[in-house]
Design a protein that fits this description.
This protein is an alpha+beta fold and 387 residues long. It has three domains: 3-69; 84-185, Beta-Lactamase (2-Layer Sandwich), CATH 3.30.450.20; 210-385, Sandwich (Jelly Rolls). It is 45% helix and 22% strand. It has helices at residues 3-27, 35-84, 103-109, 113-116, 127-137, 187-197, 281-286, 288-312, 317-332, 348-355, 359-371; strands at residues 88-92, 98-101, 145-153, 159-170, 177-185, 210-212, 224-230, 233-238, 244-250, 255-256, 267-270, 274-280, 333-335, 340-342, 375-377, 383-385. α1 (3-27) runs antiparallel to α2 (35-84) and α8 packs antiparallel against α9. The longest helix has 50 residues, at 35-84. It is elongated.
């Protein structure tokens, strides 16, 4: 017999004894004197029984509170684990209205978690995929697991391709159900797959363009390579003495990124108005055509890096500057009637960092070359190298 049944049985017995005593009192015109001790004894028994009941209820309540705390602790633990899952996780009701959303899901949609709650999921699918998506949803209530793919719209952004796994959890008590959704971003995979099927492997095609103004520091993200479509980017690092060193100049159709260097300090600065597109290393790995396109660009960056290294190997500063000007002429030179004009305007400190010398020395040497007529400055202070 459970504790609850024991308590119920005790209360029924007490109620029966008190009812019997009450009927005895009512049946007598004048209650006998010996009835008072009996009544007091019965009330004492009732009091003790109620104390036992109260004690039992207190213990049961403490156990209930402990159980609730344990359940809440487990819920918090699983919630924390869920937030660590890299794929997006959603819970909807039977009408596909979002009830819960993980941080990763909110990140996929580029919106805060609370703004996803209450939205019908199908409205987040891009228009041309919506009818097919809703048709596939008709299978959800008929099967416990459904897999599909769809394109979802990001808030104030582009769309992303997602592989979707749907699981239906039924509540046996009230017959309702909740639906669990796992969304995995497969945009890069789809892009690589499309590249394999296409003979036109233009790395600029169907990619958003990022713009940077002159002097802006360009964000370098792990796993991403930048491809320059317009402008010139300066690549620098820091020496052991805390001095900036010029290690590269990236022009149109050249690439750069943190994934192409092992340097701890690596910075990219726009020397002009710059247009960039991003390519993920994952896409390059998954797409043989993209890898084939990127290989010459990577080789180009390595050759330029070797050219900068060869400058540092020159014994005299004059020879370093001579080799640097020849490198700049080849990399960012533009033929004009006056000579070869450097498209980017480098400071004397940039020349000094590339030649491992001081700015004062570079100013003196460039002044000497100007006197000799080997270099001139145009109206925009761009250096022109005479043939």
């Amino acid at each position: 017999m459970s504790n609850l049944n024991v308590l119920s049985h005790r209360i029924e017995k007490i109620h029966g004894r008190l009812s019997k005593l009450y009927r005895t009192v009512n049946a007598s015109p004048s209650p006998p004197v010996e009835l008072l001790p009996v009544a007091l004894m019965e009330l004492g028994i009732v009091s003790e029984a109620l104390q036992l009941v109260m004690k039992e209820l207190t213990q049961q309540n403490e156990k209930l509170v402990a159980t609730q705390d344990k359940v809440e602790s487990e819920r918090q633990r699983y919630q924390t684990l869920l937030e660590l899952v890299p794929d997006g996780y959603l819970v909807t009701d039977e009408a596909f209205y979002i009830q819960e959303a993980s941080w990763a899901a909110a990140n996929l949609f580029n919106i805060q978690q609370q703004f996803l709650i209450g939205k019908p999921l199908h409205t987040l699918v891009i228009g041309e995929d919506r009818s097919l998506f809703q048709a596939r949803l008709s299978q959800v209530n008929q099967r416990s697991r459904v897999e599909l793919s769809a394109r979802f719209q990001r808030y104030q952004g582009d769309f992303f391709n997602a592989a979707v796994i749907i699981n239906v959890a039924h509540n046996r008590e009230n017959g309702s159900c909740c639906i669990h959704w796992l969304l995995r971003d497969i945009t890069e995979y789809k892009r690589a797959e499309s590249a394999l099927e296409s003979t036109d492997n233009n790395p600029y095609k169907d990619r958003p363009t990022h713009f940077y103004s002159k002097g802006e520091i360009i964000l370098l993200e792990p796993g991403t390579i930048w491809l320059v479509s317009q402008g010139i980017v300066k690549l620098t690092t820091m020496s052991d003495h805390g001095e900036e060193m010029l290690i590269g100049l990236v022009r149109e159709s050249m690439i750069f990124g943190s994934g192409l260097t092992a340097l701890q300090t690596y910075q990219a600065i726009a020397l002009s108005k710059v247009h960039l597109v991003s390519i993920s290393l994952t896409e390059i790995i998954q797409s043989p055509l993209m890898a084939q396109t990127m290989l010459p660009l990577i080789s180009q960056r390595l050759r330029q890096t070797e050219s900068f290294l060869s400058i540092y190997g020159q014994l005299h500063v004059e020879d370093r500057l001579k080799h640097l000007l020849a490198l700049l002429k080849r990399e960012i030179g533009q033929s004009t009637e006056e000579g070869v004009r450097l498209c980017a305007r480098l400071t004397h400190q940039d020349f000094a960092s590339a030649c491992c010398t001081t700015r004062v020395t570079i100013t003196r040497l460039l002044g000497k070359l100007q006197q000799q007529g080997k270099v001139v400055l145009d109206s925009q202070n761009h250096l022109i190298l005479k043939e």
